[in-house]
Amino acid sequence: MNRPIHRGTHADDGDAPSKVPPATLAFWVVKILATTLGETGGDALSMTLELGYAVSTLVVLAFFGIAVAVQVRARRYNAAFYWAVVVATTTVGTTTSDYFDRTLGLGYVKSSLILLCAVVAVLAVWHRSTGQIAVDHITTKKHETFYWLTILVSNTLGTALGDFVATSTGLGFERGALVFAGLIALVALAHAFTRWPPSTLFWAAYVLTRPLGATLGDTLTKPTDDGGLALGRISSSLVMAGAMIGVIALTSLRSGRGSSKGP
Q1: What is the DSSP string of 120-187?
Q2: 31, 202, 207, 208 from 188: Cα distances, Å
Q3: pTM of the model
Q4: What does each C-alpha distance from 124 to 7, 40, 138, 148, 156 come to in angstroms?
Q5: What number of other Cβ atoms are within 10 A of residue 79's Cβ?
Q6: Number of structural domains, the chain?
Q7: Fewer CB within 10 Å: C terminus or N terminus of the chain?
Q8: Which structural domain, as residue segments, surrounds residue 142?
Q9: DSSP category for residue 23
Q10: What is the C-alpha separation between 93 and 87, in angstroms, rounded?
Q11: Distance of CA 78 to CAs 8, 84, 87, 259, Å?
């Protein structure tokens, strides 16, 4: 997905600046790093720090609330604000999915089906309410509200899907990551060579990058007996955060647009 997804026409936005970055290759690289960070960070809270799934979910929900409030109040795209919210949604997705699967005992299949229906429902209401589903050109509060709600639910769905493929099917974390990487490649090919709606492909890729990040995160931190590399959750989270900052900074410098135009 090297080229940005066409933003479409917004009759009510005038010349207002977009609140989100274009969906370029750099965007997807940072998104995968962010989802991996969300997985390792969420597990660090619930397992390493032993806060448990319920308390960890409340902690990251508070972080999400603060981050999204700052993002919504901003007048234009700010890389730090935007990606802080993305990381918050991936962390919420990790702890919420684990709470559904393990604490409530729903299991990966039921949780995935419920969350898939929730994503479809949010997108349907979004389209019915605004007449379109925006992807990389968000200028109104209504679109931004639906945008972040979709991301929050889709990241929770992605966590459940990642756990299902890696654990329930017996593929393991590494092969699970390859499965989702292959599916993302198919979406990229569809974007390049078909006329499928860009918004549909965008959200398909967005959902799939979450389980890819989840399986990559588990590959880094799970014990070797479970197919992981047994790296520390906190140290892995710091490495992912550093990589994100590096890619964002490099992209901003190369584009010559500073923090107002990120990946």
Answers
A1: HHHHHHHHHHHSS--SS---SHHHHHHHHHHHHHHHHHHHHHHHIIIIISS-HHHHHHHHHHHHHHHH
A2: 15, 9, 13, 12
A3: 0.82
A4: 19, 32, 17, 15, 18
A5: 21
A6: 1
A7: N
A8: 25-260
A9: -
A10: 10
A11: 21, 10, 14, 6
Please state the separation of Cα 131 from the chain's center in Å.
24
Residue 92 lies in a domain: yes
Helix/strand number for the chain, H first, E second: 8, 0
The answer to whether residue 204 is domain-embedded is yes
Q: Is residue 19 part of a domain?
A: no
What proportions of the chain, in percent to the nearest 5, are helix, strand and coil?
A: 75, 0, 25
Q: With respect to residue 78, please indicate whether it lies within any of the assigned structural domains.
A: yes
The number of beta carbons lying within 10 Å of the beta carbon of residue 84 is: 19
Task: Report residue 221 as tokens.
Answer: 């931190």
Distances (CA, A) of 141 to 18, 146, 216: 11, 9, 33
